[in-house]
Amino acid sequence: MSRSTARLLVCLGIMLAGLAAASAGPREERGRFNLGAVEATPPSDFARSLAAAARRQVSYFVFYNSSYQKIPYPMGDVPSYFGVCTDVVVRAYRALGIDLQVQVQKAGVGTGDTNIDHRRVEVLRKFFARAGTSLPISKNPDDYKVGDIVTYYMPNGWLSKTHIAIVGAEKNLAGVPLVIHNRGWGVQAEDWLFAEKITGHFRYGGPR
Fold first, then answer.
1. Neighbours of 67 (CB within 10 A)
2. Mean pLDDT throughout 137-163?
3. DSSP characters over 13-53
4. How far apart are CA 129 and CA 4, in angstroms?
5. How confident is the model at residue 43 (pLDDT cuts 50, 70, 90)?
6. Mean pLDDT of 31-39
7. Where are the domains of the chain?
8. CA distances from 5 to 11, 16, 183, 205 (A)
9. Can you tell me the distance from the alpha carbon of 183 to that of 188, in angstroms, rounded to the nearest whole number?
10. In this structure, are residues 57 and 92 in contact, taking their beta carbons and an 8 Å threshold?
11. CA 33 to chain CA mean position, Å
């Protein structure tokens, strides 16, 4: 076989491979690069806005600090460079005009301490169960929609045994939603939804 014929065959092979890749491209890209994919059934505007408000917190450096601090009431907050998992949730709702510090007190699910009640996972879990909608706890990622609240029990947690997170709009390559939370290393959007035992799954859009 001459060199020119061999080169021609190589070129034809490359062209055929390119055409095959082009025809399969969109399907493969959906499988490989679906980080940030949207829901087939779009969530409510509020839920998407809540997740976006939580996601914006990833841009700010936050020291994990769970110490008790006196804060104003209402709209009280610890310094913005401090925070724990509950603060991610509180600050996301507050960005949409809903003050969980006040709502928790109105619901009577804490001890009556306006400085700390809304910053405790178990208090928020009771609050969302009472004031929001309780949803199934499952291993099916499709059950967890953007803006949902998920609480956890972490038997081996070194900072806390309980945890709370917001379901984000992004997904991993398998289609499992990321969660937005702070488990000790600042606010992150992380592939962590099923990492620990889920104790609660809620949806809350504000006072009814």
1. 7
2. 97
3. HHHHHHHHHHHHHHHHHHHH--TTPPPSSPPPHHHHHHHHH
4. 75
5. confident
6. 35
7. 1-33, 45-203
8. 10, 17, 63, 69
9. 8
10. yes
11. 19
CA 166 to centroid of chain Cα atoms: 4
If you average pLDDT over every residue of the chain, what do you get?
Answer: 85
- What's the chain's Rg over C-alpha atoms? 23
Q: How many residues does the chain have?
A: 208
CA angle, corner 99, sides to 75 and 132, nearest 5? 160
- 106: confidence class by pLDDT, cuts 50, 70, 90: very high
179-196, pLDDT tens digit by residue?
A: 999 999 999 999 999 999
User: Which CATH code of 3.30.420.40, 3.60.15.10, 3.90.1720.10, 3.40.50.970 fits the domain covering 45-203?
Assistant: 3.90.1720.10
Question: What DSSP letter does each residue of 81-101 carry, written as one string?
Answer: TEE-HHHHHHHHHHHTT--HH
- Please report, for residues 35, 47, 139, 171, 195, the alpha-carbon distance to residue 176 in angstroms, rounded to integers and kept in the order given: 9, 17, 10, 5, 12
What residues form DSSP beta bridges with 208? none
Which residues contact residue 41 at a Cβ distance below 8 angstroms, ignoring those fewer than 6 apart? none
- C-alpha 205/C-alpha 132 separation (Å) is 7
- Residue 204 in 3-state DSSP? coil
Q: Which residues pair with 165 in a beta bridge?
A: 150
3-state secondary structure of 60: coil
74: left (phi over 0), alpha (psi -120 to 50) or beta: beta
The answer to whether the beta carbons of residues 155 and 161 sit under 8 Å apart is: yes
